[in-house]
UniProtKB/TrEMBL annotation:
It comes from the Bacteria. One of its GO terms (cellular component) is plasma membrane. One of its GO terms (molecular function) is transmembrane transporter activity. InterPro entries: MFS (IPR011701), MFS_dom (IPR020846), MFS_trans_sf (IPR036259), Sugar_transport-like (IPR052528). Its main location: membrane. This is Major facilitator superfamily MFS_1. PANTHER family: INTEGRAL MEMBRANE TRANSPORT PROTEIN-RELATED (PTHR23526), MAJOR FACILITATOR SUPERFAMILY (MFS) PROFILE DOMAIN-CONTAINING PROTEIN (PTHR23526:SF2). SUPFAM superfamilies: MFS general substrate transporter. Keywords: Membrane, Transmembrane, Transmembrane helix, Transport. Residues 227-417 form the Major facilitator superfamily (MFS) profile domain. It is a multi-pass membrane protein. It is found in: Cell membrane. The chain crosses the membrane at residues 24-46, 58-77, 89-108, 114-133, 154-172, 178-199, 228-249, 261-279, 291-309, 315-341, 353-372, 384-405.
Length: 417
């Protein structure tokens, strides 16, 4: 599996600009569809009768599906003759689950359980398609262009995704339940099909396939790639401490602050605006300080969010904190990909490294919301938020340590140190 970028000639730049355009269109259509359904799935499930643990499963079950599928998919990818076609077919399958969620109200029984199941299952093809996309981007977008390319993509996806959330939130509160949800989720499905179409239009050329290393061989090699190992372990810990509060925010906003769909959309919108205005700042900081230091700064800022939420009794105050949260999270969501691409090894090992990193972080994503909900029900809201803050700060310190770590030698030809 190989990319089109070989030399800096006119033809390469023509295809580079084309792929940047397709990447932008893919991101925009994905963001619109995603933001018409995912910010509202939790409240949709609650309206259908979901309890606290079922809400937490909306966050954790997708990660479990990813854990089940990553290794078999990676083995298949390493053996497949046309990985690119496999990836965009998976993208079409992923978006079809939006339609299934829209059809849930027609079921006579097990409606909240069906929402949880469909949201979980869609992540199985989505995570594999995402792994392939990461690998394709490392081939198609040279390292010196990635900061600007991904910052521009994030800005446009943020702006249009924000508009989608705003419009969806207004309509959901004005259209009788559950018809509003079904209409919006069906439109999200249509944008999802467009997203998959633009994914399929990348100009990606597979050269003569190299002999792929097995997962076991990559694990042996990885034992010498200390910085990648430390990055993966620190990412596991941060993901766990970060995601354990996700279902609690939804539960608290709906049950205690009585947020409706409009307020849920406002929470997403202000966070998106905070992200949009800081993407380029994070990209510039990464150019000056490196991906690792910039990402670690963002995680330290993210660490303060639960403590800020601990005493909140007004949705207006919560919106201000969500705006700050968007500013902080923008750095992590953009730079975690950049740092991963920076640490990837030579070509034949690349997909295996992405798979192992994804397994590590998805394992944390599966455990964390369930553990967070359990801990929240034991200690209560305020104590939970303060403890979560402390745990996030400690995990942020670990990422700083990884960023500052200087390996004695380079083990692989590119990254993997």
């Amino acid at each position: 599996m190989g990319g089109i970028i070989t030399t800096k000639n006119r033809e390469v730049y023509k295809y580079l600009n084309y792929n940047i355009k397709m990447n932008l269109l893919n991101g925009i259509t994905f963001s619109i569809g995603y933001n018409m359904i995912m910010p509202f799935v939790g409240i949709f499930a609650i309206k259908l009768g979901a309890n606290n643990y079922e809400v937490s499963l909306i966050n954790s079950l997708p990660a479990l599906m990813a854990l089940i599928g990553i290794l078999p998919a990676t083995i298949f990818i390493n053996r497949a003759k046309n990985v690119f076609k496999f990836a965009y077919v998976l993208e079409y399958i992923t978006r079809s689950f939006y339609l299934l969620v829209a059809l849930v109200p027609f079921m006579s029984k097990f409606r909240p359980e069906a929402v949880v199941l469909f949201v979980g299952l869609l992540n199985l093809p989505a995570i594999v398609a995402g792994m392939c996309w990461q690998s394709f981007m490392s081939d198609l977008i040279p390292e010196e262009f990635r900061g600007k390319v991904f910052a521009d993509r994030n800005i446009w996806t943020g702006v249009l995704g924000t508009a989608a959330v705003f419009i969806t939130g207004i309509l959901l509160d004005r259209i009788k339940f559950p018809y509003g949800y079904q209409i919006m989720f069906f439109i999200a499905f249509l944008f999802g099909i467009l997203d998959a179409y633009y994914y399929s239009k990348f100009h990606y050329v597979s050269h003569k396939k190299e002999a792929s290393a097995s997962i076991l061989d990559s694990l042996k090699t990885m034992m010498q790639s200390r910085k990648f190992i430390y990055f993966s372990l620190a990412s596991f810990i941060f993901t766990f401490t970060w995601m354990m509060a996700w279902p609690i925010f939804t539960i608290y906003k709906v049950d205690d602050l009585h947020a409706n769909n409009m307020w849920m959309s406002i929470s997403t919108i202000v966070g998106s605006v905070g992200s949009i205005i800081t993407y380029k700042w994070w990209a510039n900081l990464a150019d000056r300080k490196g991906n690792g230091i910039a990402l670690s700064i963002s995680t330290l800022l993210i660490s303060t969010i639960p403590a800020l939420w601990a005493k909140v009794t007004s949705l207006y105050v919560g919106a201000v904190i969500d705006f700050f949260g968007g500013m902080a999270t923008a750095g992590y969501t953009m730079l975690s990909l950049n740092w991963l691409l920076e640490l990837l090894p030579d070509h034949k090992e690349k997909m295996n490294y992405i798979a192992i990193y994804t397994i590590v972080t998805q394992f944390a994503a599966f455990l964390s919301p369930i553990a967070g909900t359990w801990f929240y029900e034991i200690v209560g809201y305020e104590t939970f938020m303060y403890v979560t803050t402390v745990l996030r700060v400690l995990s942020s310190v670990l990422l700083f340590a990884v960023a500052l770590y200087k390996p004695e030698k380079t083990v692989l030809s590119k990254g993997g140190v």
